[in-house]
Design a protein that fits this description.
Leucine-rich repeat, LRR (right-handed beta-alpha superhelix); globular; alpha/beta; five-stranded parallel sheet
């Protein structure tokens, strides 16, 4: 009986050894894409343009295969968009590659009628909210600026966002500054406060 159990376990281990491990390309793997190519993130939330294929290290020690710019919503058509430090792209063979998000393109979400909230996370590398980013997003009600590194919000970033009244920050020190910047960019009735919004 013991011999049978032993043989059974050995057979299982042999099978496991030959099962291919899905799909994460290690940090030394060369990016399969070139600068300028546009791809959708693995989760389907956004479309990104490759801006660099040079490896780099992020704030959390993650090894990236390059950098990307967020250029618009993906096919998932979510009502909320979050800009984190990184995104994952998947190639035709199922291998995944991690890229650092460094910029958002002008007019990236212009006239997106499904967008209700927009978040820039505390770890995001984005420092500029570009011109027209959410202009015409008439149903947008919440903006979450948890990053303390937003240096500039360009003109008309929130033009036509009449329902945008709630802005949340990740620092009490940024409340007045971010409120002023958001209002100047078009959301005249926006009021900022410190805290996390669900």
């Amino acid at each position: 009986m013991r011999k049978i159990k032993y043989l059974f376990l050995m057979a299982i281990l042999t099978i496991i050894m030959f099962i291919p491990i899905a799909s994460s390309a290690d940090s030394g793997t060369t990016s399969p894409w070139t600068v300028g190519m546009v791809l959708e993130s693995t989760d389907g939330f956004g479309k990104y343009q490759i801006t660099s294929t040079t490896s780099c290290t992020g704030k959390l020690g993650i090894q990236y295969h390059g950098t990307v710019t967020l250029i618009g919503p993906g096919s998932y058509q979510s009502t909320g968009m979050t800009v984190d430090e990184n995104i994952t792209l998947t190639d035709s063979d199922g291998y995944q590659y991690t890229y650092k998000v460094t910029e958002i393109a002008p007019n990236a979400f212009k006239n997106d009628k499904k967008l209700l909230s927009f978040t820039i996370s505390s770890t995001s590398a984005v420092t500029v909210i570009p011109k027209g980013m959410c202009s015409g997003c008439s149903k947008m009600t919440v903006l979450k600026l948890y990053s303390n590194n937003i240096k500039k919000i360009q003109k008309k970033a929130f033009k036509g966002c009449k329902k945008l009244k709630s802005v949340y920050t990740g620092s009490r020190k940024k409340v007045k500054k971010y409120q002023k910047m958001v209002r100047k960019a078009g959301a005249k009735k926006a009021k900022a406060s410190y805290g996390i919004s669900l």
